[in-house]
Amino acid sequence: MGKHGIEILNLDKNELLRMLNEALAEEWLAYYQYWIGARLMEGPMRSEVEPELLLHATQELNHAVLVVTRIIQLGGTPVLHPAEWPNLARCEYEAPVDPYVEVILNQNLTGERCAIQRYQEIADFTNGKDHSTHQMAVTILNEEIEHEQDIEEFLMDLQRLKEDMRKFRI
Predict the structure, then answer these.
(1) What's the per-residue H, E or C state across 58-81?
(2) What pLDDT, in 10s, does the model give residues 127-156?
(3) CA–CA distance from 149 to each of 85, 103, 112, 142, 153 (Å)?
(4) I want to staple 25 with a disulfide (CB 3.0 to 4.6 A). Which of 19, 38, 89, 153 is the partner?
(5) What is the pLDDT of residues 88-118, one digit of tens each?
(6) What is the distance, to the nearest Å, from the Cα of residue 92 to the centroid of all Cα atoms in its chain?
(7) Could you give the CA distance from residue 105 to residue 27 in angstroms, rounded to a whole number?
């Protein structure tokens, strides 16, 4: 981003860079949580859920690309070491120590809800003040909302499957 582009920002650039680096750390953690969870997952509907979680992982990685690009455009330095990710992230990484599909989905649902909050905050902070960052935040926010919906639907399907199994027990 050129000097004039930075000069016209009507906000605290350092605060925005802090928020973006936190979001970047969260995206990397979300990527890995989705990716490793999809690989380890066990249980009913695994064959349906796994490809969706791998798609979500790819989308989280794409979010990281958007965020890091914006940090650099703003003249900032992206978080440089993975060891800093857990310290910067408000959205916690939950290791898939229990690989049951429902547990994995619930862990990812928690992460998505945290990400929705993060990008809503960035969108609010930049609204009318930094159109480029605002547009990026809204784009990512919309994908995070879609992820939440996808996961909620899988969880509803699993609940229905459990109920059907109870009904038909002999």
Answers:
(1) HHHHHHHHHHHHHHHHCCCCCCCC
(2) 999 999 999 999 999 999 999 999 999 999
(3) 26, 16, 10, 11, 6
(4) 89
(5) 999 999 999 999 999 999 999 999 999 999 9
(6) 11
(7) 17
CA dihedral for 54, 60, 63, 64, sign (positive or negative): negative
> Which 3 state secondary structure label does DSSP give 125?
helix
Provide the whole-model pTM: 0.91
Fill in the amino acid letter for 150. Answer: D
Structure tokens at 106: 């619930």
Q: Which two tokens stand for residue 143?
A: 């994908």
Angle between helices 46-73 and 131-167 (to 10 degrees): 170
Q: Does residue 124 contact residue 11 with C-beta atoms inside 8 Å?
A: no
Report the candidate in 18, 15, 33, 13 with the shortest Cα–Cα distance to residue 114: 33
C-alpha Rg value of the chain to the nearest Å: 18
Q: Which of 102, 118, 115, 116 is nearest to 151 (CA)?
A: 102
| 20 Cβ contact partners less than 8 Å away, ≥ 6 residues apart | 67, 70, 71, 74, 76, 122, 133
